[in-house]
Design a protein that fits this description.
Shape: globular
Helix content: 25-40%
Number of helices: 6
Order of helices and strands: HEEHHEHEHEH
CATH topology: Rossmann fold
Number of domains: 1
Strand order of the largest sheet: 1-4-3-2-5
Largest sheet: 5 strands, mixed, barrel
Distance between the termini: 24 Å
């Protein structure tokens, strides 16, 4: 269901997809409120057999086995980093690897430790199926995660994942995210 709009976008002639999400920060250098450009992703959902491309392949959307080593477009990433610099956002801009878990519950401490060991910098509950289908359709993709909370990594911690905190940080950073995307769209001009 979440990927249906991506196929509609493709049929309407869309060439570039910008995806955003809220994510928990796994990287100890990330701060709540940072914007992380996604360089790559880990799909534990997909590794468990829940890939949105399962089943008969629709050739009009793309080939059976799309390459995912270039899921996030490097040219779009470069332009987005330029936009961040021009907007003086570099102090809260990061790059990293996003990992998707299916949710709806937040991650366990053991899961967070595993994800760090795998090289993930942020974790969330969305984005990867949409990106997978977008790449299957040949769309160029830019991904952006808003770090809305730091994951809990210690069994002795009194902190807990809190949906209210996620919503609060999303509201606080909404204007910056809107400015960044608008600036980037200005750089892209009529090419979308």
């Amino acid at each position: 269901q979440v990927t249906f709009p991506i196929r509609v976008f493709f049929l309407l002639g869309v060439e570039i997809l910008i995806v955003t999400n809220a994510a928990g920060g796994l990287n100890p250098h990330f701060q709540v409120g940072d914007l992380m450009f996604i360089r790559d992703h880990i799909s534990l959902f997909g590794l468990a057999g829940q890939n949105p491309l399962r089943g008969p392949n629709e050739e009009r959307f793309g080939m059976r086995f799309p390459c995912m080593s270039d899921a996030y477009d490097q040219e779009l990433l470069s332009l987005a980093l330029e936009s961040s610099q021009e907007l003086n956002f570099l102090s809260f801009t990061q790059q990293g690897v996003y990992c998707m878990l299916p949710g709806p519950c937040y991650e366990t401490i053991a899961e967070c430790r595993l994800l760090q060991a795998l090289g993930a910098d942020a974790v969330g509950m969305s984005t990867v199926p949409e990106v997978t289908v977008a790449r299957h359709c040949g769309l160029r993709v830019l991904g952006l995660s808003l770090i809305t909370n730091k994951v809990v990594l210690s069994y002795n911690s009194q902190e807990k994942a809190d949906h209210e905190e996620v919503l609060h940080v999303s509201v606080v950073r909404a204007e910056a995210l809107q400015k960044l995307v608008a600036h980037l769209l200005g750089k892209l001009g009529g090419s979308t």
